[in-house]
Amino acid sequence: MKSRQVKAFTAESIRQDLMDLIERQVKPWMETCQEQGAYHQNCTNKKNTADLPTRLVDVGQIDDDMVKLVDVKSNGDAEDFTYLILSYCWGNGNANSSTTEKNVARRSQGFTISVLPKTIRDAILLTRMMGFRYLWVDAICIIQGPSGDFHAEAPKMGDYYSESACCIAASSSADSSEGFLIERAVAKYPMTHTGIRIATPPSQDGPPYCIYQEVDNSPYIKKPLLESPLKKRGWCWQELSLPSRILHWTPQGLFLECSSSLFLEDAKIPWQDLEWIEDVTSRVILGMPDTTILLFEGWYRLVTLFSHTRLTYEKDRLYAIHGLASVLIRRTKSEYSNGVFQRSLAQGLLWYHGSRPGKYTRDENSHLPSWRQSTSEMITRSGL
């Protein structure tokens, strides 16, 4: 039987299962991707130190109870700050993870991981076991609150995800308290041989024989990504589009995605039919080779899809798509403002509410123009 085996990740086996998976599949995949070997010609390592995060979490050693918040720029350029980055849903369980003006100095001396929600603890464990020292987590590495530096850091987040060695995506967790290193149903699929025993007719000599039918028993294995809670979160559009490599953790197995291919845990050959991936991220849209089509069709298709997502604070919507806009700014050399590109201004201004009848009421406190597409609670369609 041809099959693949998903690791169970039970409480008793999780560390060994995780280490086996990392050594057998994750590390070889990342090494091949970084070397731009087969299937990875489009994957690049950018290494632009100007875009390094302001702060990173130093995860320490495998069994440490403490981690430390590090100011990257104050440590100079000599140190290697290669880092992983986390994409996850905050939910209601993320309050204790926040760095504020009150605790930032204390966290730079070290703080216990036990106060953090399970998703972040899982990311710390995974970072350690993958052999990396640094991890970027928004709640910890951006100073939260009115006196924090969110407005300075938010426009840089696209660069942070682009520059990461790999993104850890908690693709099936709707709340940070759930974690992603959870027990999974052990299943072997996709292919089995079903034997149908055929009796030899009395008039013929010889033993009975079998006809084998190869049957695909796998579920729709892309479904965990298509229905991921991350797809509904506005920030995740850039978080899952800009990194060179992403590890999607789901109960059905680990998906390894890069700019060129997509693997499922223990599958030997990558899928090459990546046109479906626009349903998971905006990689296909951003990768359009024709910049005219990208500006006049691709970008506004992306904005339409982005308008279906949710944000805890609607005022952050332009921040949440800024990293994607920056890619187009660099590629097209077109001026950009509030979700609209100058070269495709007419398309950018032609939009309407797709499925919300009645008059739209604009937030009186909004300082943003009324014509922008990414307005609160809007489902948009655009184009000429």
TrEMBL record:
InterPro entries referenced in this protein's UniProt entry, alphabetically: HET (IPR010730)
Segments traversing the membrane: none
Residues covered by region (Disordered): 361-384
Domain of life: Eukaryota
Domain Heterokaryon incompatibility: residue ranges: 83-239
Comp. bias (Polar residues): 367-384
Pfam families noted in UniProt: HET (PF06985)
Name of the protein this chain belongs to: Heterokaryon incompatibility domain-containing protein
Species in which this protein is naturally found: Fusarium austroamericanum
